[in-house]
Description:
The protein is an alpha/beta fold and 766 residues long. It has four domains: 16-80, no CATH class; 87-184 and 411-607, Rossmann fold, CATH 3.40.50.740; 188-405, Dimethylsulfoxide Reductase, domain 2 (3-Layer(aba) Sandwich); 639-764, Barwin-like endoglucanases. Helix 1 (18-32) packs parallel to helix 3 (71-80), helix 8 packs across helix 30 and helix 9 (188-198) runs parallel beside helix 21 (379-392). Bound molecules: ligand MGD (2 copies) and molybdenum atom.
Amino acid sequence: MTRSADAGIRQYEHPAGGWDALGAVAKAIHGQMSAVSGTRIMLRNNQPDGFDCPGCAWPDPKHTSAFEFCENGAKAVTWEATRKRATPEVFQRHTVSELLGWRDHDIEDLGRLTHPMAYDAATDRYVQIGWDEACARIAKVLNALPSPDMAEFYTSGRASNEAAFLYQLFARAYGTNNFPDCSNMCHEATSVGLPQSIGIGKGTVSLEDFGHADLIISMGHNPGTNHPRMMTTLHAAARRGAPIVVFNPLRERALERFAAPQDPLEMATFSATDIASDYLQVKVGGDAAALKGVMKAVLALDDDDLAAGGAGLLDRDFIAAHTQGFDALADDLRATEWADVERASGLSRASLEHVARLYCKAKATIVAFGMGITQHRLGTDNVQQISNLLMLRGNYGRPGAGICPVRGHSNVQGNRTVGIDEKAPLALRQGIERVYGFTPPARPGHDAAEAVEAIEAGRSRFLMCLGGNLAVAMPDPQRTFAALRGLEMVVHIATKPNRSHLLTARQSLLLPCLGRTELDLQAGGAQSITVEDSMSMVHASTGRLPPPSDQVRSEPAIVAGIAKAVLGDRYGIDWDALVADYGRIRDGIEGVLAGFADYNLRIRQPGGFRLPIGPAQRIWHTPSGKAQFMVMPGIQEDPRAAGAAVLTLATLRSHDQYNTTIYGFDDRYRGIFGRRDVVFLNPDDLAAQGLAPGDRVDLEAVPFEGEAASPGAVLRNLTAVAYDIPRGSAGAYYPEANVLIALSHRDPRSGTPSYKSVPVRVQRAR
Ligand SMILES: Nc1nc2c(c(=O)[nH]1)N[C@H]1C(S)=C(S)[C@@H](COP(=O)(O)OP(=O)(O)OC[C@H]3O[C@@H](n4cnc5c(=O)[nH]c(N)nc54)[C@H](O)[C@@H]3O)O[C@H]1N2
Ligand SMILES: Nc1nc2c(c(=O)[nH]1)N[C@H]1C(S)=C(S)[C@@H](COP(=O)(O)OP(=O)(O)OC[C@H]3O[C@@H](n4cnc5c(=O)[nH]c(N)nc54)[C@H](O)[C@@H]3O)O[C@H]1N2
Ligand SMILES: [Mo]
């Protein structure tokens, strides 16, 4: 495997999207299924009577339009609908130890799981077992645990509302709130920060609002790769002349220039549209400082306007009627020094003042944001500063205005809504008691990082995973992998094999489930499931493809089967009846939770229905009943960032991956082809270390305030790529770079791992 160090690294000259994206779809289909079935299934994607795309949580325009082309949606669908099968025979051919040596891509590319299996330590292989046997083994372990709080129930956000609701009902009936889930690694900073600011942990805008916004600020996300359908929205906004201000350390191609595959003219003429009107390359981790700078400038502009006899630029009526804490915020902003803002954000005062002027000119502003905002030690502060900025000019509860956290997994928001929440809100507990007649536990359970710590310490002995790849998604694989291997039992409900499944415990079960695209036939006939998108729209999804084998069961059916085995007829819940007709599960959700009235009726409307979002009506479910300005005193900086030798590393998704699922080895828009072993560095940082582009380097973790990654955490032999990124900032791919992240390196307010601000040193490879 010798090749020149800079092979596969070259500038990508085209706009994002366009014909290259169409070509990539053809390739994705070719790799996994026949062209005819691939094309046919793609046409049912996000259609009113079709299935919801498992690719992301961006909403569909009214669910009535023609098929919306999306390259990465196509990859997600074909990866699930593949013809490849990971049968028991396949597992006979490969020991678990052998599979552990494979790349993540190759493990999943074995294909769809077809039969329930259990790990056999004697032969080091997964072997087929029956469903009843699997459920009986789980019941035996769970019913022997000294406390229900010694079991962990993980969820990855692909599960439907129906599956997730049953899952939490089962675990709460069993007796715990231990619900580690992928949102703990994702938008938890939003879920903790926004309720304090505006009384709900969700976005306030609808898709229609983007058509009315006259300023869109995009912070810390990469929609060209992770939410390609959002590019249609941004493309339309750019075309009608709405300024789009981007805060991102990396110049992401799609945010600069995009050719919309749905636009016949652009496709025919090979033309494209500029997306960002202003691209601010904030330092990694510098957003709170940048936002404070913009707000400070807004206050100054307001002062000037008042001095010139104007009415001021703040929305004083909104601030007086709807908010609390403005004076404290203003005092803090006036006391904040520009020099500190500039240093911490890496942005000039002039550029932030320019954004402030655009903001004061705009009648309606939306701020959209992703992982570049949330996955930081200051993640919750970042989110709250965004809300402060919006509140200064009353940008809530008006057309074209509001906050837009762009969610990850296609139903991660729905999972939280229907009860995947380790904090066990009172209303949910009361609802369960009302409908199901038992009192769920009130004590808070574990989030994802706490679950791993509890497992490591032996305080938890059992782990069930409804999807996902927990061990690989979490920081510090050295610790996390070792912890999981120490469990009494681990149970994975999954579509495809992955590395977490190979970290076997005393007993390990692998249970195959249906995906979104597949026909879900139960006693009461073919079933639909429901999901909630990033904008709180709940709608139905119906799969039609034949299941990968007759042994594969739906997630609700698997959960109900386990619940029956573990709980017997405790609390008189008729699990079989719930699975026979998912409408009964939805009736349960409707009974337990507010906002779901006529659930079964309303999902029949095209496009579904929207859950109530208080701030969209200027209703604030905060303790004071008002929206709160949240002060982040001063400018907080990582003390290490001052030292030139320490860089702040953001771990990123490539264009060819879905979280830990690696579809392929290209990151087209960043100019990386056929490899992932690279680190993106500013040319001056390279030179400062006596390095040149193409050199092999090692990244070494730098402990923070005594929080160390596992000793000697080093990522070796990466190729240095000179990239347009601020000095002091660096980028490398997730999950490879997770070895550098200490489990304790997280936002103290939300527990979100600081995946996007990892202190590292770069040196020539040993
Ligand atoms: N195809 C595809 N789609 C996906 C996923 C996938 O892996 N593949 N994952 C899904 C999931 S679970 C999620 S959560 C979302 C993730 O979608 P994103 O939120 O887009 O997540 P990342 O790819 O991690 O990219 C974060 C962006 O933040 C920027 N960034 C890094 N650090 C900072 C910073 O300090 N400040 C600012 N302002 N920006 C920063 C990076 O340059 C990058 O452009 O996508 C979902 N959709
Ligand atoms: N360094 C670093 N680490 C990160 C991040 C980062 O940006 N940087 N991002 C974090 C984020 S935002 C997230 S959300 C997590 C993701 O963490 P997870 O959600 O745990 O991981 P995924 O990679 O999405 O899970 C992929 C697996 O899900 C299973 N699967 C797929 N579809 C289905 C289905 O329909 N049903 C079931 N039961 N299983 C299915 C397959 O077995 C597949 O292998 O990772 C986090 N980790
Ligand atoms: Mo996520």
